Amino acid sequence: MLAHATTFALDGLGTRRVRVEIDVRPGLPAFTIVGLGDAAVRESRERVRSAILNSGLEFPQRRVTANLAPADLRKVGPGFDLALACGILAASGQVPAPALASRAFYAELSLGGELHSCRGTLAVAEATRVAAVGQLVLAAAAGAEAALVPQLEVAAVPTLADVVAVLRGGPVPDPPVAADDDVRSDALELADVLGQHEAAEAMIIAAAGGHNLLMCGPPGTGKTMLARRLPWILPDLSGAEALDVTRILSIAGLHAGHGLVRRRPFRAPHHTTSSSGLVGGGASPRPGEVTLAHHGVLFLDELSEFYRSSLEALRQPLEDGLVTIVRGQRSAVFPARCMVVAATNPCPCGRGTTGCRCTEPDRERHARKLSGPLLDRIDVACSLDMPAGALATVPVPTTREARERVHAARARAADRVGDGGPSRNADLTGAQLRRYAPLDRECRERIEGAGRIVTSMRARDRLHRVARTIADLDGAERILPEHVTQAITFRKDVLRTEPDA
């Protein structure tokens, strides 16, 4: 007898509908799964058999063949277990086959028949609604996450026996309630970073416009402390952004809660991370750190210690906001619209201008670790030094004060562009920049007179965007010459290793 069940496979950050075909016919007892499954799919034979028997049901002592179609799509993970089990039960006459037609199944089975949630629940729920399947059957633990998708009937059940009862016409469990949003916890205080008022101002400018930031200074001056406080001065995620971030984290298996993620993601990979770890990759492409930081912050501490190949792999994502991974004649596109915040020491010994023991060749080798094209994609840069009498210096703004300034600046940028346009100045195209942020003659002359600071049209546009952000922070309707001068000041340190023009 032949039976069919519907499930979904994760494909990059998307999903593909999978038709599970079960054929049960006389012959020597065997259970075969075909359809380009990975080890987790092949091992599901033992999980499905044990789950059926331990649920008080009968596993057919015949030749059982399961096909996961389309056959050319690689199937990864244990989420096919429940669909396989239900298909076998329908093909062997233990549940009515028509009951499977209007349902999709997505759960891992334990040997005892309990249902466990799998990564990517939110993406599968969205795909189920788009495919108009009718009802999604999954583990009780995943019900709250699936309930985030509106206009979708969700049956969240704890065991395989409960699924069988539903398929036989029994009562459907009460619909799960969508979990509360993952809201902010206690914020880190920006004012705790003593004596770094200029660096804090640079970070506020970067946050207001969504610009990339580079901090250079000796160890212990507060670079990491500043970076870890950046998410707390950024606005909360909008509804669409929260859905994107939650889907990405769910597919990556990093969604700890069940509600929408409202906090900006903050990723801080170690400097030994490979290029595939940063931008994504693998035989079945998985998102990298730059995608996990989508709509948030990617912090690269000890920037000069990263592998050169890893840093160069970031050049295209920083410019385009997405990553295209091609493996085995298949491609996966991952979003990568994030702020990159980098921190580095000024020289190998780390002392900088205070008691540096490095030779000139040492400093030159250290500077060459960061390529010009990579530095060209940095919008704002600042130097940090150990302040003398830190407690007596100009106080650093509090997190609340900085957050209010960033909110106000972003609101001005959004109102200027209008609905449908980018809400961050860093995302303005060249045409949008000239339309919404025109420069007068004196401002253009200051940019053109910046010399080695403006080494390309890309650098010119980035300087222009930063000036517009500074004007937004000042509440100015147009860019003034002093805004351009301040933008130039915060970009000089990017090219600090080059000789003066």
What are its keywords?
alpha/beta; 501 residues; disordered C terminus; elongated; 37% helix; 20 helices; Ribosomal Protein S5, domain 2; five-stranded parallel β-sheet; Rossmann fold; 2 domains
Write a compact overview of the structure shown.
The chain has 501 residues and is of the alpha/beta class. Helices cover 37% and strands 17% of the residues. The chain has two domains: 2-167, 2-Layer Sandwich (Ribosomal Protein S5, domain 2), CATH 3.30.230.10; 190-495, P-loop containing nucleotide triphosphate hydrolases (Rossmann fold, 3-Layer(aba) Sandwich).
Report the CATH superfamily of the largest domain.
P-loop containing nucleotide triphosphate hydrolases
Count of DSSP helices? 20
Biggest sheet details:
5 strands, parallel
Helical residue percent band: 25-40%
Which regions are unreliable across 5 or more consecutive residues at pLDDT < 50?
Answer: 494-501
The CATH architecture name of the largest domain reads 3-Layer(aba) Sandwich
Number of strands: 16
CATH structural class of the largest domain: Alpha Beta
What distance lies between the first and last C-alpha atoms, to the nearest angstrom? 81 Å
Share of residues in strands:
15-25%
- The value of Rg in angstroms is 27 Å
CATH topology of the largest domain: Rossmann fold
Helix-and-strand structural type: alpha/beta
Q: Largest beta sheet: what is the strand line-up?
A: 11-12-15-10-16
Shape: elongated
Q: Tell me, rounded to a whole number, the average pLDDT.
A: 90
Number of domains: 2
Characterization of the model:
This protein is α/β, with parallel strands linked by helices and about 500 residues long. It has two domains: about 1-165, Ribosomal Protein S5, domain 2; about 190-495, P-loop containing nucleotide triphosphate hydrolases (Rossmann fold). The protein is about 35% helix and about 15% strand. It has 20 helices and 16 strands. It has a five-stranded parallel beta sheet. A four-stranded mixed beta sheet has the order 1-2-4-3. It has a three-stranded parallel beta sheet with strand order 5-8-9, with helices on both faces. The N and C termini lie far apart (about 80 Å).
